[in-house]
Amino acid sequence: MRPVRNGWMHTTTPWPTSTPFPHAWLVVGDLGPGGQQPRLKVLKGPAVLSESPLPALPAAAVTFLMEQHEPRTPALALASGPCVYVYKNLRPYFKFSLPQLPPNPLEQDLWNQAKEDRIDPLTLKEMLEGIREKAEVPLSVQSLRFLQLELSEMEAFVNQHKSKSIKRQTVITTMTTLKKNLADEDAVSCLVLGTESKELLVLDPEAFTILAKMSLPSVPVFLEVSGQFDVEFRLAAACRNGNIYMLRRDSKRPKYCIELSAQPVGLVRVHKVLVVGSNQDSLHGFTHKGKRLWTVQMPAAILTMNLLEQCSRGLQAVMAGLANGEVRIYHDKALLNVIRTPDAVTSLCFGRYGREDNTLIMTTRGGGLIIKILKRTAVFAEGAGEAGPPPAQAVKLNVPRKTRLYVDQTLREREAGTAMHRAFQADLYLLRLRAARAYVQALESSLSPVSATAREPLKLHAVVQGLGPTFKLTLHLQNTSTARPILGLLVCFLYNEVLYALPQAFFKVPLLVPGLSYPLETFVESLSDKGISDIIKVLVLREGQSAPLLSAHINMPMSEGLAAA
């Protein structure tokens, strides 16, 4: 048997068996040598039963039931390029192609001009490169191939393709199944496709028409679906921008968004928890609304993830294949088991294979195929893989004996618990009110504003001098850090231009050495002859950022007075 390379696999068992795997089929998407000759292989035991060439690299493979008629044989759907190939009884049954996307109108106009010989190939290349850099709609495959050609090959390519219409085709990036109207295991399922054009498509299982279309902000790479299409369903899509978007039946766009700190490498739904693997070697558990429940650090990089469901015991766990050759099984954040393999595992599949309900099939980075059968009497216990909590937690603390005072205080808390809680809440609300009032008063009177961010420790003090109508405004700006200078700051004034005039509304701040106070002077001219005064707001900003680092309100005096802010 030729070694199986990194691919996607699924098991199908249409008939009951009496021997371990006599009629169990294993379908594998084989990338071929160097990913140049992708093939669909069907294995029966250790032997290759059949091979079928694929026009493009396989992206996903799932089994699903298309109809309720007997015999109820599952069909195999294989996503490759822009098409979904459906097989029944291991024979080609149907081919679904994604609808074509509208081409870029500017690109279409350029090829029409080339068809009429109004522009030469060199001009066509320059204008297509300009469109590729600026246009929101990407170029077609025909234009992208033309841009890769040498100058001597351009004219022949244009003469060959200028009479052809421009076609822009997207490809499938991920695929999963969604129950149509029943939650049973043998219910009819719909196909859910994620495309390179940032869309999700739900296909009818019989007619293969598009039942629903949803848009995403980025390209989906992993999908998890729960529910039924005709009733209610919830869909989670992990995308290339590092976010996970949640969609429901009536939403055309995401309802919730989970922002990750790293790129996702796997997505598995365990009951109501979304388990996400990231390229920071960690597993995260989230609710459907984006609340993080737990985080587990892995000893090596995560290469693949899948669901382990032991129906006989009602157990659902997540499997993670690591780069160090381990396969770790977790229930929430508790480690259940560790399987060590001779090579790094690149894909996992757990389910029924032949007459065995709990079979784990793994492919390795070097081209190996490993099949493990879970014993029917096996019971997963938390901490069976390795010790979870550190040994220090098992050390008993030297807790002192209960005193009479402690017992009396406990009885008092039991009897007057409600009154004590109400008094605590009243004091807490009063403290918040006083803090809010003090904060507002500080903003209004500009009492020594201090930066709220630790990255830019700044302190500002303003002084207004003069009798008017021209005042001298001095800003004392200080860097309160211990050792780091600050550079690249701007000072901006916001004021009523009807009442006041300043020579410069903003100016740059020189390098601030830690510990020194720098005076920044400017003049303010009062334009009102009615003795009206107003507030001038001072903002300290970082170059290239709109959010201020520091702000202060200066109460300007009337034209006949002297005041200090």
UniProtKB/TrEMBL annotation:
Occurrences of domain Bardet-Biedl syndrome 1 N-terminal (ranges): 26-248
The name this protein goes by in its record: Bardet-Biedl syndrome 1 protein isoform X2
One BP term from GO: non-motile cilium assembly
Domain Bardet-Biedl syndrome 1 protein GAE: 458-560
GO CC terms, sorted: axoneme; BBSome; centrosome
UniProt gene name: BBS1
Organism, scientific name: Camelus ferus (Wild bactrian camel)
Superkingdom of origin: Eukaryota
Pfam families, sorted: BBS1 (PF14779), GAE_BBS1 (PF23304)
GO MF terms, alphabetically ordered: patched binding; smoothened binding
